[in-house]
Write a structure and sequence with these properties.
Three copies of one chain form a homotrimer. Chain A is an alpha/beta fold. Helices cover 33% and strands 24% of the residues of chain A. In chain A, α2 (14-23) crosses α6 (181-203).
């Protein structure tokens, strides 16, 4: 099955993906709260490309602080999302407007980080999706360096690998392991349809007691 | 005195209620910062209906996870607010769009929780007021269950009982114990009037020193 | 050099100031994330006027809780920013609409606090810039008191003195020590120009690898 990211962005949402993953026994696929889009009402969907950071406290020629970061971002393909795992380090802003400009040119689907982002005004003018822990005006130089790319990582308590599907919206961010993407998408689209039925019943005055007895969803 | 919630929503605000409660010796009636409306500029006012949650880590037929939740929400009356006490557990989102749809039908005044909320986009389309600690796409199933309803609770460090008056706005959320609602409302409406006088003086260039000496409020 | 705050607000931004300070060896000039404007897209720039708070738990005639606060705010000059150091105490809201009304009359450039702010709706109607840790409806009375003014302070992990230059925007807040303001401003304006060149190259499809090799900035 070819992945149709444009369709998922309009038909799916993080809550229905989280419920679907729960129903399949995957209970640890939703990022801990607090990783938010820097612009309201953005839906981001694509495939992960993982980079891992470590904190550093100096800079010099040998450090070559942007080395792996430049490598990862220059290699982004259409619909890929740069996943910058900072172990919750809010003291660095590994993403900003120049990286957004390049990633946007390459048709990347966005950036996801548990660190911070800067240049938010300009990033929003570009319209590039960024989900981050917060904003911070500081560079990574003197503070952190990406050390490894395309290796397993963890972000906001969720395990992530390059190739996993990511969907982020106003509610939060869900990661679907690459091995079960097709199964999850199919089941999630079915659940959307059941929820539509329940919603209509409730609007017409049915009680939660009655609709839950019949449809078993809430 | 019949409570006129529509009037309180336009004439009162959380700060003047907090000051009034302070002046009567009630210093612990304001929720700790961080419980926010999921939509800007919403004012929520109504009477509490309390439900208490506990964390759980499984689901099966015996668990009947939505049992008490369905009971509480189906029983909401006009101007009542579902107060979902989660002990600050941000790992669950006990509120979402289907519960909003039902509560809105029953003319409930909103939901207040120190847990999270999901389906925020759809909840905002309904226009149902929700004040929560954050957003999270996950269901309570496998994660938490409401165990008791209409018993005393605590939310963001404030004691709350069903029947207490709740007012939330951009600044935060204040809880007025049911026994003193009339006294607090009367005094708060008077304070609003004094603040209007002071504001006019300051706009015309009076110093804080002078207006405070005269009016004793700031 | 006369400081031209209106120019800095349009040409500079917190990230370029943070980078410039980094390049001069000043790595601790950016406030820890979480101190935000209460209104989106506000740029605040001016000179610090520092006040230090301590937590208190009572109120009476002797306490004279607003004593130093009234003194500091009534003495604000054009382009000065009230810097209210609360040691991260979110239990108090030392700033609100009446202080905003007075400070606005005196042409103060804003308020910066690691405590909370209240009356946010009215403060935003006045259009007065406030960067704070959060919102909270409670007064300082019974909770905190400004004890010293125009002494050195610390806010969100940055040392600050009256006379330091402050710039806050969507990304965060940077403090420029008074002794190096001219040098930093000059160098930051130059950096803005280099970033414009790099941005244009990236928009035209140059790789990060190539532009970083040539311009050494990212």
């Amino acid at each position: 099955m070819t992945l149709n990211f444009a369709e998922y962005k309009t038909k799916l949402y993080s809550a229905v993906l989280a419920d679907t993953l729960d129903s399949l026994g995957y209970h640890k696929q939703t990022l801990s709260p607090g990783i938010k889009s820097i612009k309201p009402d953005v839906v981001m969907c694509g495939l992960a490309r993982v980079g891992l950071y470590m904190p550093i406290y100096h800079d010099d020629e040998n450090t070559d602080v942007y080395e792996h970061e430049i490598g990862l971002i220059d290699s982004l393909k259409e619909n890929e999302i740069a996943v910058l795992c900072c172990h919750g380090n809010e003291k660095i802003a590994p993403w900003g407007e120049l990286l957004s400009t390049r990633a946007n040119y390459l048709k990347s689907a966005g950036c996801l980080t548990d660190g911070c982002v800067r240049d938010t005004k300009m990033v929003n003018e570009i319209g590039f999706p960024v989900f981050a822990k917060g904003t911070n005006p500081v560079d990574t130089k003197f503070r952190g360096k990406m050390m490894m790319t395309d290796v397993p990582g963890e972000i906001a308590n969720v395990y992530v690998e390059s190739g996993d599907l990511i969907l982020g919206d106003n509610d939060g961010v869900v990661i679907v392991p690459s091995t079960i993407i097709n199964k999850v998408i199919k089941k999630a689209l079915e659940k959307v349809s059941s929820e539509n039925t329940v919603r209509e019943k409730l609007k017409r005055g049915y009680s939660l007691t009655d609709v839950f007895k019949k449809y078993k969803i809430l």
